[in-house]
Amino acid sequence: MAYILALDQGTTSSRAILFDHAGAIAAVAQKEFQQFYPQQGWVEHDPTEILTSQLSCAVEALGKAGARPRDVAAIGMTNQRETVIVWERASGKPIYPAIVWQDRRTAAQCKALVESGAEDEITSKTGLVIDPYFSGTKIQWILDNVEGARARAERGELAFGTVDSWLIWNLTSGNHHVTDFTNASRTLLFNIVKGEWDADLLRIFGVPAQMLPEVGWSSERVGEVTTTLGLGGAAIAGIAGDQQAALFGQACFEPGATKCTYGTGSFVLVNTGSVVVRSAAGLLSTVAWLEPSGELTYALEGSVFVTGAAIQWLRDGLGLLDNAGQSEALARSVPDSGGVVFVPALTGLGAPDWDPDARGAMFGLTRGTTRAHLVRAALEAIAFEVRDVVDVMTAEAAARGAADGAAWYPAAGYQALRADGGASANDLLLQLQADQIQRPVERPVVAETTALGAAFLAGLATGVWSSQAELAATWHLDRRFAPAAPDDAAHARWRSAVEQTKGWAG
Ligand code: ADP
Questions:
Q1: For residue 322, how many C-alpha atoms fall within 13 Å in the half-sphere facing its CB?
Q2: Which pLDDT does position 132 carry in this prediction?
Q3: Ligand 1 centre from 76 Cα, in Å?
Q4: Cut 0.85: pTM above it
Q5: 78 lines ligand 1 (CB under 6 A)
Q6: Residue in 280, 273, 317 with CA at minimum distance from that of residue 295
Q7: In Å, what is the CA distance from 404 to each residue of 7, 110, 248, 409?
Q8: Is 425 in the pocket of ligand 1 (CB under 6 A)?
Q9: Of the residues 9, 267, 312, 385, which should be mutated to test ligand 1's pocket, given the most ligand atoms within 8 Å of the CB?
Q10: CA separation (Å) from 120 to 185, 277, 396?
Q11: Using one digit for the tens of pLDDT, what is the confidence trace for 385-415?
């Protein structure tokens, strides 16, 4: 049993990574899949392509390492969160494409919910805000817009799942319709204090309980893969949403430990221990994981929707780059952005501003503006967006932590920010980040921490590893970025630009 296999089903690609006992990567396979934008503000995936890309990566990774399914001690699953799939139990066919977390189509439903006065109850139970980002209104949309769906859901013919549920249901031939606490905590239907689906929330969102998956722990044996596609018999023993998995994979086990994952979007999470910290400034409270003692660990989260995706858009939408990695050299070819400010609110604004109707904008263009300035402005924007979240988090830590008397408070303001995700390969970005937040930024040797976290959870459940301390010892520093003086004037200009993008699509 040499390996743990992590299946990392992301927003733009599926990845499979084989880890060894030292937490080192033995093989990786990755496959991008298609993004669909059927209308302004809509984002969809093909659930079948999600499944096939994930399976083919898994088989490819095993092949690269010369491993057989019996060499895999356990499979850990991690996934893009909030994305909604509804399928027929009998045939396994999805009744609609996957509605992706970035999709804004339910903005009007969300406004109506706020106007109905439901926000306080929803927020206090879920730790979330009302926004199209989360699964609740997306499920509601499918039930209301696919003919006959609501009646069929009430008869128990349909199943809902986030991507983890969908994949596991398929990998186990429909034997297991499950999810875990971290994924459930992003649906707007789950009470994060009681740790259960909430009947009142289900009523508010009009979601029949019959269609929901069973909620399990993130680190426990779920079942065996039954497919014959080269994985047969391997045990699935870990499930976590991508950001919680990354927090775990970064070994942020102590209250106050903070990470930021730079992928399609960027997500800053700070471990708040056993305390559900309620933010007054647009951060989310979310389940991080369950301790072996049975106690829930929580995190405070700042979700920024478009960061690496801005670079992807410069590549695919504007054709300014051949690949994302090129952005660093191009941005370094100019000393600054030449006064250009780019607000990449391409799918609205997440934390801390929360405006589904904001849209992207570029300010300060002149005849002297070059492609290098635009690319540099995009990297600066990522650093500004994350700074805005970290600023709020630090302020909340000071204001609330003292009141809670919680252990996360003293540590949250000064510790290094642990960075990971595809765009964390960009040294210029991480230096800009350290300068903006005035804290060191640390990148580990294994930047695939999302997959690593899923592997850790599965390995803990199957005895490959025995404690968090053992896992923490596998974390090794690749590079530390020490903060230099921040450009506060540039940040002030950025904030003014952000304000001007709000409400545009409304
Ligand atoms: P996800 O899991 O959300 O699909 P990844 O962690 O794979 O994302 O990161 C991919 C994202 O990172 C893409 O949006 C891409 O544009 C961006 N990216 C990758 N490499 C770089 C780089 N060197 N500089 C800036 N952005 C990058």
A1: 3
A2: 93
A3: 22
A4: yes
A5: no
A6: 273
A7: 37, 30, 23, 9
A8: yes
A9: 312
A10: 17, 15, 19
A11: 999 999 998 888 777 655 555 555 555 556 7
4 CB under 6 A from ligand 1? no
Q: Residues 42-85: pLDDT tens digits?
A: 999 999 999 999 999 999 999 999 998 889 999 999 999 999 99
Rg of the chain over CA atoms, in angstroms? 21
- Please work out whether the CB of residue 325 comes within 6 Å of at least one atom of ligand 1: yes
* Cβ–ligand 1 contact at 308 (below 6 Å): yes
Question: For a pLDDT cut of 70, what percent of the chain falls above it?
Answer: 96
Instruction: Classify strands 98-99 and 44-45 as parallel, antiparallel or unpaired.
Output: antiparallel
> How far is it, in rounded angstroms, from Cα 245 to Cα 266?
14
Distance 387 CA to ligand 1 centre (A): 18
Atom of ligand 1 minimally distant from the CA of 265: 3
Q: Is the CB of 263 under 6 A from ligand 1?
A: yes
- Total Cβ atoms within 10 A of residue 163: 32
Q: Which residue in the block uniquely carries the two structure tokens 């590549």?
A: 315
Asked if omega into 94 is within 30° of 0 (cis), the reply is no
| Local confidence band at 479 (pLDDT 50, 70, 90 cut-offs) | very high
Mean pLDDT of the chain: 92
Query: Do residues 350 and 386 lie in contact, with contact meaning Cβ atoms separated by under 8 Å?
Result: no
For residue 384, is pLDDT > 70? yes
Q: Is 327 in the pocket of ligand 1 (CB under 6 A)?
A: yes
Nearest-CA residue for atom 13 of ligand 1:
308
List, for residues 306-364, the tens digit of each pLDDT value: 999 999 999 999 999 999 999 999 999 999 999 999 999 998 999 999 998 999 999 99
pLDDT, mean of residues 261-284: 90
360 lines ligand 1 (CB under 6 A): no
